[in-house]
Automatic annotation (TrEMBL):
It comes from Duganella zoogloeoides. PANTHER family: ZINC-TYPE ALCOHOL DEHYDROGENASE-LIKE PROTEIN C16A3.02C. It comes from the Bacteria. This is NAD(P)-dependent alcohol dehydrogenase. Pfam families: ADH_N (PF08240), ADH_zinc_N_2 (PF13602). Residues 11-308 form the Enoyl reductase (ER) domain.
């Protein structure tokens, strides 16, 4: 029997339930995936809270979860990237979600083949953080070898992915994190690491080609103040006001998590080469997903990604 985490109305943690469901037949360009592992992201509970109901609509029940790793069960018409039995990772469809379940339908262009040396837990963590980091560093900022980026929140999931992707491209990295994470940041190649609790960023003399605010707590004045002439401020939390501002200020780049086939394939290559790994904080079974999401939503820190493994007892 297929089961998944879902909700019957928008709201808090109390609306979540693990329930049986029937998996659809994959349509054109779609793939059915039996999920081995899924990673939890803040977007999961923000969608459940109704923050994006202008997109997700009013049809219920709604499934939860975006980031996944598993094995292809079936392919729809026009699928050329995968065949039944392939191990894959990536994202479910944004509007439908469903990664926090035993199977899901995904678009083929939001998946890539899992590298043989990468386990399913690790692969499940790559989707949203890896895609978002790539979108920011290369699609929006166009960073190249020898340039410099400042990553605010460099040891969060997106920040950790951004550090590794930047370093693998020859981009020099500085950034902020907690005191407890500073040694880990240095080990990943962050050249200048600042304790976000104790550092006044306006006192940093170096100027950067890009500032990536993964922690979403920089003021525009501070972010723009860290830039070289022509540098760009990468913002992960677009609002209508920011979209308007970005029209008139080309140094402000709003970053949306936008998967595509060649990007996922690049992440797969980086992960396969050992250049991209995300820290895992906790692994739990699907029946414990509600408790885990509730704790994370209420501010619990795990020191890494939260992963739901479907075959875990």
């Amino acid at each position: 029997m297929m089961k998944r985490l879902e909700y019957q109305q928008y709201g808090g943690p109390q609306v979540m339930r693990v329930a049986p469901f029937t998996l659809d037949v994959p349509g054109k360009g779609q793939v059915a995936v039996r999920i081995t592992s899924a990673a939890i992201n803040p977007i999961d509970w923000k969608m459940r809270q109704g923050d994006m109901k202008i997109v997700t609509g009013k049809r219920f029940p709604r499934a939860m979860g975006m980031d996944l790793a598993g094995t292809v069960l079936a392919v729809g018409p026009g699928v050329t990237r995968f065949q039944v039995g392939d191990a894959v990772f990536g994202q479910s469809r944004f509007k439908e979600c469903g990664a926090l379940g035993t199977a899901v339908i995904a678009n083929q262009n939001a998946l890539a083949r899992k590298p043989a040396g990468l386990d399913f837990d690790q692969a499940a963590c790559l989707g949203s953080p890896g895609i978002t980091a790539w979108n920011a560093l290369f699609d929006k900022a166009g960073l190249t070898a020898g340039q410099q980026v400042f990553i605010n929140g460099c040891m969060g999931a997106v920040g950790e992915a951004a550090v590794q992707l930047a370093r693998s491209a020859g981009v020099r990295v500085a950034g902020t994190c907690s005191e407890a994470d500073m040694e880990r940041a240095r080990a990943l190649g962050v050249e200048q690491v600042y304790d976000y609790r104790r550092t006044d960023l306006t006192g940093i003399a170096t100027r950067y080609d890009a500032v990536f605010d993964t922690a979403a707590n920089l003021t525009g004045a501070v972010g723009f103040g860290l830039l070289k002439p022509g540098g760009v401020l990468l913002d992960l939390h677009p609002t209508p006001g920011k979209f308007l501002r970005a029209v008139f200020n080309r140094r402000l780049k709003l970053v949306l998590c936008t998967p595509r086939a060649e990007l996922l394939d690049q992440l797969a290559r980086k992960a396969g080469d050992g250049a991209l790994r995300l820290t895992i904080g906790k692994v739990a079974p699907l029946d414990d997903a509600i408790a885990m999401i509730t704790a994370l939503e209420q501010g619990q820190r795990l020191g890494g990604k939260a992963v739901i493994r479907m075959d875990r007892p």
